[in-house]
Design brief:
The protein has helices at 9-20, 23-35, 39-67, 71-76, 82-113, 124-135, 153-170, 174-184, 186-200, 206-214, 224-237, 245-250, 258-286, 297-309, 316-353, 357-372, 380-410, 413-420, 431-459, 469-496, 498-508, 514-527, 530-540. Helix content is 75%, strand content 0%. The longest helix is centred in the middle third of the chain and has 38 residues, at 316-353. It is globular. The protein contains 23 helices and no strands. The two termini are 12 Å apart. The structure holds phenylalanine. Phenylalanine binds at residues 19-20, 22-25, 96, 100, 236-237, 239, 242, 337, 340-341.
Length: 541
């Protein structure tokens, strides 16, 4: 059980923005804007935020606050089988955390490797190959034999640093997260501002860059892709269905204003996506590489951007400094997303088995760290690509559909909305908005995506990106099946294993229903001032 609370409202907003704002804002969003007619994508994205993103975010935060638990426990308050959906979200979060932290480690490695850009002034070929050849040392394949099994020492060190940072930030749950997000949310904004100024000064193509970014090309609206990409990006960017926002909601004091905070979080996230787009468009256009903007995330950050860096000035060390700034920005964007997802996993375990969260955190971080080594081998990027594709295009969507059905149809969405609107006076989230989204639009949109993605995959000869079929089966279908089965596996283990059974039964003895939680939450806030609860929790650990 965890009785922790955020130290104040602002801390919660920062933590949630920190989780939402991640690498997706900085490298996925700008690429999508470039691909889909600039401002046209911005418009569709905002629509997707209203239709699906904001209601689902509010829903998750509210369920977490009411039930005071991670995803499985919180969704159990909706329905007894909701717990299984929660475990799928946790399992998917576990997988995502394993490779997201590897990406974080790449970025850390690039901060320290950036001084190499000093020697590459003007040499775009060398800069473009630098990450693949020298830092990640990847073969691009999926076989671990030969070079595919090599682990670069620099990457191993970076990975250890990345996991140590993740652990450090969440070691005391809300208390330590609250301290870190004061920095990790503002530093990237400042760094992005510095990079933006750099992109603006003496840039002959600034006008073209801003035109392509903001002026809508309405013809783009006619293709289905823009809609799919916009809804997918909102979903991913707001960190919903990842077992994160319920945990963050569970740390909220009872008088928090979820309806308003959700809007702040969603628009804060959008703001950083737009700021990142301005930075990327202006820098990449300034070096005359506008046509490269359409490439996807990893390529933009690790291939295209280095090519831009070495063309910034004719003075090597100045370019290198911009490299450091850029990768430092990415690190500060990545860290609070990475630890938020680890926190979601560890909280679920501590809820279920009644273990102190610190113990759950250290154990789970060690397990995830061990698994993540796979992704820094020579075959790592191939596996990362496969696992990432299934986690996001299938698992996340299925979890989303299940969550919407449980809340919208099995439970009463009005009860969740009441929790969202509990302490709001001026602005309340309208019922028609919340219910149409949770009951109808979101599940429909998500089901459509699921079908679309499935058909697209089966229609592609050779399957996903032509990786060997065995690798697609293991990294894709098998892991997805495990993710979906996790709730059943946990239930089975708790039934068969005596020790786990005793632990889970003991933890469950204190569980309350949705309706019972109301009185408890109301009473609790009055007796225990926020500060003392956090202090008590910190001492307990
Ligand atoms: N919202 C994050 C992003 O845009 C996605 C994410 C969150 C990934 C949490 C992992 C963990 O990058």
């Amino acid at each position: 059980m965890s009785d922790q609370r955020w130290s104040n409202r602002f801390t919660f907003i920062l933590a949630a923005i920190g989780s939402a704002v991640g690498l997706g804002n900085c490298w996925r969003f700008p690429g999508l804007v470039a691909k889909h007619g600039g401002g046209a994508f911005l418009l569709v994205y905002m629509l997707a935020m209203l239709v699906m993103g904001i209601p689902l975010l509010a829903m998750e935060i509210a369920i977490g606050r009411r039930m005071r638990g991670g995803a499985p426990k919180a969704l159990k308050g909706i329905h007894k089988h909701g717990e299984k959906v929660g475990w799928s979200a946790v399992a998917n979060g576990f997988i995502i955390c394993c490779y997201y932290t590897v990406i974080f480690a790449w970025v850390i490695a690039m901060v320290f490797s950036s001084f190499n850009f000093a020697g590459m002034t003007g040499n775009t070929d060398a800069a473009g190959e630098f990450f693949i050849k020298d830092v990640a040392q990847t073969t691009g394949g999926v076989s671990f034999f030969g070079e595919g099994g090599d682990i670069p020492v620099l990457m191993l060190i970076a990975l250890v640093v990345a996991w140590a940072l993740v652990y450090y930030c969440i070691r005391d749950g809300a208390a330590s997260v609250g301290k870190v997000v004061k920095y990790t949310v503002f530093i990237p904004v400042v760094l992005l501002a510095v990079l933006m100024i750099k992109g603006f000064i003496g840039n002959p193509n600034l006008g073209a860059a801003m035109h392509d970014l903001f002026v809508p090309d309405m013809s783009a609206l006619g293709t289905p892709d823009i809609w799919i990409d916009a809804f997918g990006q909102v979903f991913y960017s707001l960190s919903v269905m990842m077992a994160i926002m319920m945990v963050y909601g569970s740390y909220l004091p009872k008088d928090s204003n979820i309806a308003v905070d959700t809007l702040i979080i969603a628009f804060g996230d959008l703001f950083i996506s737009i700021l990142s787009s301005i930075v990327l468009f202006s820098t990449i256009y300034s070096t005359g590489m506008a046509s490269e903007m359409t490439t996807t995330g990893i390529a933009t950050a690790f291939i295209v951007y280095p090519q831009a860096i070495v063309q910034f000035t004719s003075i090597g060390w100045v370019n290198a400094i911009f490299g450091v700034i850029f990768y430092l920005t990415l690190s500060t964007l990545a860290i609070d997303s990475a630890f938020s997802i680890a926190e979601g996993v560890s909280r679920a375990l501590s809820d279920k088995f009644g273990i102190p969260q610190k113990k759950a955190t250290i154990s789970i971080v060690l397990v995830m760290a061990a698994i993540s080594v796979v992704f820094i081998t020579g075959a790592g990027i191939g596996w990362l690509d496969i696992v990432d594709n299934w986690a996001n295009t299938f698992n996340l969507i299925l979890i989303g559909i299940a969550e919407c059905i449980f809340v919208g149809w099995v439970f009463k969405p009005k009860k969740v909305l009441d929790e969202v609107n509990k302490n709001t006076k001026k602005y309340k989230m309208p019922r028609w908005w919340f219910e149409t989204s949770v009951k109808i639009l979101s599940p429909l949109v998500l089901t459509f995506f699921f079908g679309w993605n499935l058909i697209a995959l089966f229609k592609t000869p050779g399957g996903y990106e032509n990786y060997p079929i065995w690798a697609q089966i293991i990294g894709g279908w098998l892991i997805s099946a495990l993710v979906l089965a996790t709730g059943f596996i946990v239930a089975f283990l708790c039934k068969k294993n005596k020790k786990l059974k005793a632990m889970s039964e003991k933890a469950e003895a204190n569980e309350k229903t949705w309706d019972e939680m109301e009185a408890i939450n109301d009473a609790e806030g009055e007796e225990t001032p926020v500060e003392s609860v956090i202090e008590a929790a910190a001492q307990e650990n």
